[in-house]
Amino acid sequence: MFGHFPLWPESASTNAGNVDALYIFLLLVSGIMTALIFSVLTVFAVRFRKHRGQRAVQIEGSHHLEITWSIIPFCVMMVFYIWGAVIFFQERTPPQDATEVYTVAKQWMWKFEHQGGQREINELHVPVGRDVKMIMTSQDVIHSFFVPAFRIKQDVLPGRYTTLWFHATKPGTYHLFCSQYCGTQHSGMIGWITVMEPRDYEAWMSGSAGNQPLAVTGEKLFSELGCVTCHRSDTQGRGPNLVGVFGKRVLLEDGRTVTADENYIRESILEPGAKIVQGFKPVMPTFQGQVTDEQLNALIEYVKSLAAPQPGRSANTSPVAGASPQL
Amino acid sequence: MATTDGPDFGERESYLNAGHGLKSWLLTVDHKRIALLYLISITFFFFIGGFFALLIRLELLTPGGELVQSDTYNKLFTMHGQVMVFFFLIPAVPAVLGNFLIPLMIGAKDLAFPRINLLSWYLYIIGGTLMVYTILNGGVDTGWTFYTPLSTEFLKTNVISAAVGIFFAGFSSILTGLNFIVTIHRMRAPGMTWNRLPLFVWAHYATSIIQVLGTPVVAITLVLVALERLFHLGVFNPALGGDPLLFQHLFWFYSHPAVYIMILPGMGIVSEVVCCFSRKRIFGYTAMTLAVVGIAVIGFLVWAHHMFVAGISIYAALIFSLLSYFVAVPSAIKVFNWTATMYKGSITYQTPMLYAFGFVGLFTIGGLTGLFLACLGVDVHVHDTYFIIAHFHYIMVGGMVMAYLGGMHFWWPKISGRMYPEGWGKLAALIVFIGFNLTFFPQFILGYMGMPRRYHSYPPEFQILNVLSTAGATILAVGYLLPMVYFTWSMRYGKPAPPNPWNAAGLEWQTHSPPPTFNFDEQPVVTWEAYNYDEIGEIPEKEKEEVPVAH
Q1: I need a labelling partner for B492 at 20 to 30 A (CA). Which of A270, A283, A287, B400 fits?
Q2: Is the CB of B325 less than 8 angstroms away from the CB of A34?
Q3: B346, A73: Cβ pair inside 8 Å?
Q4: Is A163 helix (H, G, I), strand (E, B) or coil?
Q5: Cβ–Cβ of A84/B378 closer than 8 Å?
Q6: Alpha-carbon distance B104 to B15, whole Å?
Q7: Nearest-Cα residue of chain A relative to residue B379
């Protein structure tokens, strides 16, 4: 049981190196500070211990010293702050063209769905050397997606999407933990991230065929649920034309604007009255309780595909013509 | 100045023998007796919470989760947290030592509202009874943080009785704070100006402000949790139209300042002890008072640093990270000033001073690792791992409990009228220090390696560090049991204490040990600055201990 005794986590993403560098810097600075305080304490404790016939020398204090030992640590801390903020900003800003994986967390498992329609539970296959963006939501309580080897973590909330991204650098298998306490089997809500060479990854992706791409699933749902009757690909529909909408700013009836991201589309399906696009009436019925989180993901993926028509897929109109009136 | 005769334990009337029988204790309005009621109650909860902690550590000895079921384990860490935070750490120093000492230190006969003081204890007991009921009725497994919607919709355990218990304990805390604020404003002896107040009193003043302003927020929040559980109110649960992050904002708005409720009184103790055993005025009195007030104020503006990965906006995170660094500056000033106070002192190493050394060292480590957590890039990785557990135990246990024990030893002669056995005291302090570090230092490493907190079972590569931690916890348990034993022993067999065994500054040492019901024979009048060790001189030598002490 004591054969394997690591003291440092594996590093398998671009972010891991960044975080480690900052962590080591923090360790060094705070190590020096600790050593300094401890040695001064020790020296004082020995040097100024009670000697018979010798009295303590009273000192009121020194503003110069106090200002010095406030300002110097503060400046050092500002270095921590800025360095940490820069890394955080990178962690929280996914690159535009990242491979997207939809994640639905529930007590006590992780469900993943790739854009190609491949589904996995508690295991996620990703390619090395490519940006991967996780689009995550929870079916019940708050969970947290934590991969120590990537040094990343993001809480997964019910009722909305949170995102996270990483760029794996080393093939291998790494721990996935739920790090937000979520009930009985919290410590069983674990899995593996398998990072593969691109060729192996492509083979794995095509090997688990039998699925249709997520956007195609979404397109079918879009007509089955009747969305297509109002959200027509021309300007005549009772609802906004969705072609080219995703990722753009949308002007609302009350004068506000919102970005048409995953959370906005989710809300528009479940609570259509919350944010009405300018020029339209609040006539859409709610789909709360009628669509699962997985179906929502498919619908969102379909709406995304309308924004950037992919080769080989039949986008039913030119995005330029369809995008304009309500934007 | 009150005249005090040498060792006057015996037939002289003191608060201890002023009344007999259970009724004289349960209906007392004497702040010193209420402090003892609190002492007994919080000690009871400390050992309950400690027992849960030991079971947690035993479970984590092996990776597999063999000792208890997952549900039981979740209840253990939940109740360990709730009992320790709300029923031990928050009341410990203010309600026991603060209650006992603040009137003595400022030269007052009692607190401003003696009956409200008793009411505080009864509210605490109602809350504590509900907590005990919760434990006996099968426990609660929300985590001490009650995160929603888990706590409001998904768990089948005693969430409401636990929440209502903490609600009552909260009101006890509010009333204690209110009592202290009024007392410190209105009841100071002639000549006891704000600039002559002991730093212990300043620390309690700052703590009281947090208690009065912060606690109502968590009380309301817990009521909302109970209402959402009972009536599906839809405040926090998104399925009912609520906001899952709202709870975290409200909870941490109190619970981060609550960290300062726990640590500031400890800082007050350390200031008293370091000055006394260095025979020195505190280095930078004004800076020390500004620092405690600064910590209390800025402490209200940093709560969302508990939520960097919770899904708050990037820009909110950037602001809260910055503000968290601001609160570190006054904490750093305190550490440096304690160290500087020892410079050119005449230092002796009685038990309270050993605990003060332990406090400064462990608080330094706890504080510096706090800088790691305020740092956004690092926090994303270590949040919700054992790194956090180690960090806050360095502050709460390494800092606060060390200070509490130091204070108990320092003022035990005043409280009980008896000396504790010095040799055993030093031994226990050493055992606590070693046990503490062995328990919690490995957890920093575990945390950076990625071991999540609140895990019943864990991957085998984390085992060896967990074994070390469990070994440390066993040692720590011995260190905590020892003072319990010898304090009890000393109440009967300890050497009678003189009024001022340490020859310390401060009005509390100028009355009898134990003090009479109304504290002073004559109204004290203060004509000297705080920590006037230049006028007082050295600690009496052992053979001279029986000699009357007077200023």
Answers
A1: B400
A2: no
A3: no
A4: strand
A5: yes
A6: 13
A7: A84
Contact status, residue B478 vs residue B76, Cβ threshold 8 Å: no
Q: How many CB pairs under 8 A join A and B?
A: 279
Q: Which of A30, A41, A187 sits opposite B70 (nearest CB)?
A: A187
Distance (Å, rounded) from C-alpha B452 to C-alpha A146?
9
CA distance B240 to B233: 8
The vertex-A70 CA angle with A61 and A62, nearest 5°, equals 15
Torsion angle defined by CA atoms of residues B463, B467, B468 and B471, in that order, rounded to the nearest 10 degrees: 170
User: Which chain A positions have a beta carbon within 8 Å of B456's beta carbon?
Assistant: 186-187
Whether residues B244 and A186 touch (CB distance < 8 A) is answered with: no
Contact list in B for residue A153 (CB cut-off 8 A) is: 309, 380-381, 383-384
SS3 of residue B525 by DSSP:
coil
Q: Distance between alpha carbon B319 and the CA centroid of its chain, in Å?
A: 29
Domain segments of chain B: what residues?
33-519
Task: Compare CB distances from B450 to A4, A62, A148 and report the shortest one's residue.
Answer: A148
Query: CATH assignment of B33-519, given 3.90.550.60, 3.30.420.10, 1.20.210.10, 1.10.10.10?
Result: 1.20.210.10
Query: What is the helix (H) or strand (E) element at residue B16, kind and residue range?
Result: none
Please tell me the distance from the alpha carbon of residue A224 to that of residue A221, in angstroms, as a whole number.
Answer: 5
Q: What is the rounded CA–CA span in Å between residue B344 and residue B278?
A: 8
CB-nearest partner of B378 from A1, A22, A40? A22
CA distance B146 to chain A (A): 10
Nearest CA to CA, how far is A154 from chain B (Å)? 5
For chain B, 551 residues long, give each residue's pLDDT as a single digit of tens.
344 444 444 568 899 998 889 999 999 999 999 999 999 999 999 999 999 999 999 999 999 988 999 999 999 999 999 999 999 999 999 999 999 999 999 999 999 999 999 999 999 999 999 999 999 999 999 999 999 999 999 999 999 999 999 999 999 999 999 999 999 999 999 999 999 999 999 999 999 999 999 999 999 999 999 999 999 988 999 888 899 899 999 999 999 999 999 999 999 999 999 999 999 999 999 999 999 999 999 999 999 999 999 999 999 999 999 999 999 999 999 999 999 999 999 999 999 999 999 999 999 999 999 999 999 999 999 999 999 999 999 999 999 999 999 999 999 999 999 999 999 999 999 999 999 999 999 999 999 999 999 999 999 999 999 999 999 999 999 999 999 999 999 999 999 999 999 999 999 999 999 999 999 999 999 999 999 998 887 777 654 444 444 44
Helix, strand, or coil (residue B344): coil
**H helical segments located in B18-158:** 22-26, 31-59, 70-84, 90-91, 99-106, 114-136
- B386 in Cβ contact with B410 (< 8 Å): no
Nearest to B345 by CA among B422, B411, B282: B282
Residue B228, token pair as written in the block = 């959402």
Question: Residue A54's closest chain B neighbor by CA?
Answer: B346
Residues 6+ apart with CB under 8 A from A293: A104, A137, A139
Counting Cα atoms < 13 Å in the Cβ hemisphere of A179 gives: 28
Report whether B374 contacts B449 (CB < 8 A). Answer: no
pTM: predicted TM-score of the whole model, two decimal places? 0.90
DSSP strand pairing (A257-259 vs A249-251) = antiparallel
Is any Cβ of chain B less than 8 angstroms from the Cβ of A55?
yes
Tokens linked to B90: 């928050």
Tokens of A304: 């995304």
Task: Write out chain B residues lying below 8 Å of A89, CB-based.
Answer: 314
- The dihedral of CA B333, B335, B340, B342: what is its sign? positive
| DSSP character at residue B347 | B
Of B454, B365, B330, which Cα lies nearest the Cα of B56? B454
Q: Quick check: B285 and A60 CB within 8 A?
A: yes
Find, among B222, B311, B380, B233, the residue nearest to A159 by Cα.
B311
